[in-house]
Amino acid sequence: MAVDRRSFLHMSTLAGVSFFIPKFLSAACGDAGFSRKKLVVLQLTGGNDGLNTIVPFRNDIYYRSRPAIAIAKNKVLTLSGEVGLHPSLKNLYSLYQQGAVSVIQNVGYPAPHRSHHKCIQVWHSGSTDVCTTGWLGKCLDHRNSKKLFNVDADCCFALKGERSEYLTSPSHSKASLAEKFGLIASTIRSASSPDIFYLSHEGYDTHVAQGEVHAGLLAELDESVGDFVSDLKRNGQFEDVLILTISEFGRRVAENEFGGTDHGTANCMFAISGGLREAGLHGTAPLLSDLDDGDLKHAIDFRQVYATTLERWLSIAPDAILSQSFTSLDFI
To answer: Could you give phi then psi for residue 330, rounded to 5 degrees?
Structure first.
């Protein structure tokens, strides 16, 4: 992980050099108005396993369903009497104790798919209907601006608008998560900084040998976010930046024959910021005794999270983006 930390520091320093940002950022954003509130959307691509991220360590069904890959009770970073974090998430655990992390449990949507493509379309559009634009692209249309920065080089449907265009990183698509966060850390200090940032972390489709693979992914995530938050704190910006994690679906409750898990439904989300209204656990833990054909039943619609973020963080009317009303949550 030391290499990734050096990558973060390198990108943060490089992008902070005065000649770098104006070439691809300042000219496009300079006249679009400056907002203090920033949103960083982090996609955990492939379908993160929510049950091994937020571990129901008091639930016997969890351990019976996952004899090879369940997280041992004595290794869980305890959040409550019922659930705790994966042991790789030590920085997030510290931030949680500081009141800077909200864990939104059991998130999904009605009649869920198990296809990567279909689920990504739903999460990116903010709708279960067929759409031609993404929820973040609609934000750009609403503000008539280009103040959204895609730190991944690949096109993302969530960023597609009808009128607006977004900015794309000049770095190549194989950059590490630490490098992506390093670029955001420097860019966000600019007076011409975009209001919304998008990046992804690949590899969460853990059908095989999940234990070691997932632990490594979460450790990389944890260190990259930890370094990013430390940088924000040093620059007095943590209260004005919200990191929101998404993933196209969770995993099945039972492990498969290959020591992994297959595509599932409901999942967890993280909201990370020094400006949260109510940190801690939101929603109820998944009910493992009441499954839908082996899958979790969601309790919170992911569009409630989007609606809350739009209204209370970006000051955008949710109905204009999501085309219908959703009950807000209390994390911001």
So the answer is: -110, 10
